[in-house]
Automatic annotation (TrEMBL):
Domain HTH cro/C1-type: 11-65
Protein's organism: Agrobacterium tumefaciens
Domain of life: Bacteria
Molecular function, one GO term: DNA binding
UniProt cross-references to Gene3D superfamilies, sorted A to Z: lambda repressor-like DNA-binding domains
Protein name, entry field: Helix-turn-helix transcriptional regulator
Keywords on record: DNA-binding
Matching Pfam families: HTH_3
CDD domains in UniProt: HTH_XRE
Length: 67
C-alpha cells in the first residue's frame, strides 16, 4: 500500500476514534481542512512538519501515523 494511503487511513481512523471533525483537527494541528481532506484521501504528500503537528493534535506518536 502507498505510504500516502497508509497515513491517510491512520489519520482518518484516529480522528474518528477521538470524535473530532476535520475542522476541529484543522484548528488543533494548524493545518487547513482542505489539506486534511486530501491527506485522508491519500492525495497529499505529508511533510515531517505536518506529521508532527497531526501526531501532537491527535495525542499519538508520528510512528502511529506512518505504520
Amino acid at each position: 500500500m502507498d505510504i500516502r494511503a497508509i497515513v491517510g487511513l491512520n489519520v482518518l481512523r484516529i480522528r474518528r476514534e477521538r470524535a473530532l471533525s476535520q475542522e476541529e483537527l484543522s484548528h488543533r494541528s494548524r493545518l487547513t481542512r482542505a489539506y486534511l481532506s486530501g491527506l485522508e484521501a491519500g492525495r497529499r504528500n505529508p511533510t515531517i512538519v505536518s506529521l508532527s503537528r497531526l501526531a501532537e493534535a491527535l495525542g499519538v506518536e508520528v510512528k502511529d501515523l506512518v505504520s
